[in-house]
Structure to design on (357 residues):
């Protein structure tokens, strides 16, 4: 009887998490379909069907295949990268406040991208303010963003090694890194001309419309292997949740896990921020929401965070495109407006730093 009760309890435990994951999959499908139809230019279901089968107006074909499809995939890929990176950073640093944004990694990547555009000339200049700098060398921009985000990651790891990875130390280090790279970006803005200055300010908002099929290919090359790596090491991250001594006793190389995890999470963050700008709170809020709903077991936390992050960014992007249509808001504004109160609610509901010490 006892064995049967334990088995039933375990099956119920697994079923709850599996149901949540499937709900997120269905949500992504529904939101993707809504993102196709909803926008400043409405596309009816019958028109969408015609376009799929090679019929329909050429203008709708351009909107669907060159604007909305890339934007939807960009939201999915960006949400996965940022949310999984945040979940991994929180685990390996044992800090609930860790995320690419709060630790200054997003600001470092933004500085690297701006540095490549202005100093290395990785962009063409046009007369339109909203499109004044168009990246013509995405490889150079991504590489620069990665290098500088890596510098921020090593700063965090250095402090963690010298002073301990306490929440207080990590928060202070994140504040320092954010302030430093914000100041450096401001310095670049000072030496930029008027058109480049307007473009950098617009770029930092976080806008998924900057993406395209070529950019998505570059992102897939980095983000897909990164997510696979994190999924492969989810058992080691479970060991880290129990503390360093327990992880070492279970055979985990915690130093290698932390360094590799921060480097790979920085790469995934950099390849999103370097093209779309700063998209805040996705990597911070989404993992906490998932932990509250299905627990901290990394076997389920990582895939559930990936799917929830994709659904969250998709939903925010749809709202950004429709709330004051035909004007399209940058999605980074919506993620901050929605993410900040969500995190306050989570704090009031019991998400605190004490449980991670």
């Amino acid at each position: 009887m006892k064995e049967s009760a334990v088995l039933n309890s375990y099956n119920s435990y697994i079923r709850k998490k599996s149901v949540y994951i499937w709900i997120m999959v269905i949500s992504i499908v529904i939101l993707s379909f809504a993102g196709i139809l909803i926008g400043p230019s409405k596309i009816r279901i019958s028109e969408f069907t015609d376009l799929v089968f090679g019929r329909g107006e050429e203008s709708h074909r351009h909107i669907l295949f060159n604007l909305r499809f890339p934007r939807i995939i960009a939201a999915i890929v960006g949400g996965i990268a940022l949310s999984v990176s945040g979940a991994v950073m929180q685990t390996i640093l044992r800090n609930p406040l860790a995320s690419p944004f709060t630790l200054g990694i997003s600001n470092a990547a933004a500085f690297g991208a701006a540095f490549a555009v202005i100093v290395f000339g990785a962009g063409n200049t046009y007369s339109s303010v909203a499109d004044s700098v168009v990246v013509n060398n995405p490889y150079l921009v991504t590489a620069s963003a990665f290098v500088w985000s890596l510098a921020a990651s090593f700063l965090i790891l250095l402090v963690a090694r010298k002073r301990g990875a306490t929440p207080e130390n990590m928060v202070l280090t994140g504040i320092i890194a954010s302030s430093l790279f914000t100041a450096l970006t401001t310095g670049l803005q000072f030496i930029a001309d008027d058109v480049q200055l307007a473009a950098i300010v617009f770029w930092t908002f976080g806008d998924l419309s900057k993406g395209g099929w070529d950019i998505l290919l570059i992102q897939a090359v980095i983000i897909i292997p990164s997510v696979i790596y994190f999924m492969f090491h989810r058992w080691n991250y479970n060991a880290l949740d129990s503390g360093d001594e327990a992880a070492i006793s279970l055979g985990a190389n915690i130093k290698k896990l932390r360094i590799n995890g921060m480097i790979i999470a920085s790469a995934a963050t950099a390849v999103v921020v370097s093209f779309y700008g700063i998209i805040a709170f996705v990597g911070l809020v989404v993992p906490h929401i998932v932990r509250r709903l299905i627990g901290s077991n990394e076997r389920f936390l990582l895939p559930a965070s990936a799917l929830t992050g994709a659904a969250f960014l998709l939903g925010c992007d749809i709202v950004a495109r429709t709330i004051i249509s035909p004007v399209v808001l940058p999605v980074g504004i919506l993620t901050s407006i929605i993410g900040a109160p969500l995190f306050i609610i989570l704090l009031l509901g019991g998400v605190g730093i004490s449980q991670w010490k």
